[in-house]
Write a structure and sequence with these properties.
This protein has helices at 2-11, 15-34, 41-50, 52-55, 61-72, 77-85, 93-105, 111-124. With 125 residues, the chain is mainly α.
Length: 125
């Protein structure tokens, strides 16, 4: 999955596109983690490890602020999808992988997380 992330990042033409992509990944990941009503430390840790390649870049303060806001105020699925729609040219399978990674991070996949994955697949079709 990390190679998928690096491939996606390589397709982005500007820093702005890269930051929008990172924000979209976080929004989808946090929305997934929150789907069952509880964001576990394991879910956030796996999300942050997954995005470590992009995070090693110097993030502008406004991007750090948006990510902090997403973490403190988890977006709904619909809101997360607005972030995804801003990112063009990226295989949506990558976001599906984020949903599956975060869903399994705490050792159980809740019904709500399975429903979010199904909704994502429907929206991406």
């Amino acid at each position: 999955m990390v190679n998928d992330l690096k491939t996606a990042q390589a397709k982005l033409q500007s820093d702005k596109e890269c930051w929008e992509f990172l924000i979209a990944v976080y929004a989808v990941g946090v929305a997934t983690a929150c789907a069952d009503g509880n964001i576990s430390e394991e879910e956030l840790k796996d999300l942050e490890e997954y995005t470590a390649g992009i995070m090693s870049s110097k993030l502008p303060p406004e991007v750090k602020g948006i990510i902090a806001l997403i973490k403190s105020n988890p977006p709904s699925f619909s809101t997360a999808m607005t972030y995804v729609k801003k990112v063009g040219g990226i295989d949506l399978k990558l976001f599906e992988n984020v949903i599956m990674l975060v869903s399994a991070s705490d050792g159980r996949v809740a019904e709500e997380e399975t429903a979010l994955l199904a909704a994502f697949r429907k929206a991406a079709a």
